[in-house]
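F.,

This is the one I mentioned.
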């Protein structure tokens, strides 16, 4: 049985798509984030408040969405300003829940979504793991993102949040996690991209340039992470069950925590380096 599980896991981890995904995450962590942090230090932290919201894999999207709404309200009340919210992957659905269902839109200036599975997604690459899904028990949080899930039906039946919503996704198959038909929203401003892989949005220059155009200077920012510990969930469901992947590979939670603290900074620093932001900084200097 363990041998069969190992084969199934290997088909996922060693696929061309997954190897590209792993490379993007490694470059983001060890090249793009450190470089962006250097730029932020040179700016002396004058690019506006920045917060991170990281989803919890033991809870459904609705739970995280309600918690995010509380965070948005707290930041808006503490700063006296509306909040700019960005959500990537599963984080896009969490951000939509906060804005559309939990009442947070009244505290937001706009919402920008990156590769959100708005209509559900089920990458074929994960098919070898399907027979092991029940063994992950309630921690298999991908169920909310299955096409046609009850949660997505309820979320997509809600009216738009009444604020500008920018929805970015690829149309050329570069993002095998979330194809364009999964990401498209009829009522949002859809921005179609090419050549951007799922975990590469945070370091892509075209994405950063667009965000810089819509970002109000010195507006507080909340970045909502996607399912950063997807690998952990996969591992727990197969070879290593019932052990926690974080127990077997202690570096996983450390790496996830690092991304949670710094993952948005490549885009955030790019925003601050635009002429628009530089002009604002000079005006308040």
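My design for it:
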């Amino acid at each position: 049985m363990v041998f069969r599980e190992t084969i199934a896991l290997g088909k996922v981890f060693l696929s061309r798509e997954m190897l590209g995904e792993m490379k993007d995450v490694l470059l983001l962590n060890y090249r793009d984030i450190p470089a962006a942090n250097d730029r932020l230090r040179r700016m002396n932290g004058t690019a506006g408040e920045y917060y991170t919201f990281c989803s919890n894999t033991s809870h459904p999207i609705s739970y995280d969405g309600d918690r995010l709404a509380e965070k948005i309200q707290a930041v808006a009340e503490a700063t006296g300003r509306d909040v700019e919210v960005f959500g990537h992957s599963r984080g896009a659905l969490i951000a939509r829940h906060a804005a559309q269902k939990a009442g947070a839109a009244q505290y937001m200036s706009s919402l920008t979504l990156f590769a959100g599975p708005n209509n559900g997604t089920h990458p074929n690459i994960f098919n070898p793991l399907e027979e092991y899904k029940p063994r992950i028990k309630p921690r298999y949080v991908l169920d909310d993102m299955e096409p046609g899930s009850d949660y997505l039906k309820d979320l997509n039946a809600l009216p738009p949040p009444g604020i500008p919503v920018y929805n970015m996704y690829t149309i050329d198959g570069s993002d095998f996690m979330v194809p364009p038909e999964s990401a498209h929203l009829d009522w949002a401003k859809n921005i179609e991209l090419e050549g951007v892989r799922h975990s590469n949005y945070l370091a892509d220059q075209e994405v950063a340039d667009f965000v810089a155009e819509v970002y109000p200077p010195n507006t507080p920012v909340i970045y909502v992470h996607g399912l950063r510990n997807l690998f952990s969930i996969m591992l727990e469901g197969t070879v290593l069950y019932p052990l926690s992947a974080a127990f077997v590979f202690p570096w996983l939670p450390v790496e996830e925590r690092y991304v949670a603290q710094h993952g948005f900074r490549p885009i955030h620093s790019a925003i601050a380096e635009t002429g628009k932001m530089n002009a604002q900084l000079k005006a308040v200097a």
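DSSP finds twelve helices and six strands in the chain.

Talk soon.
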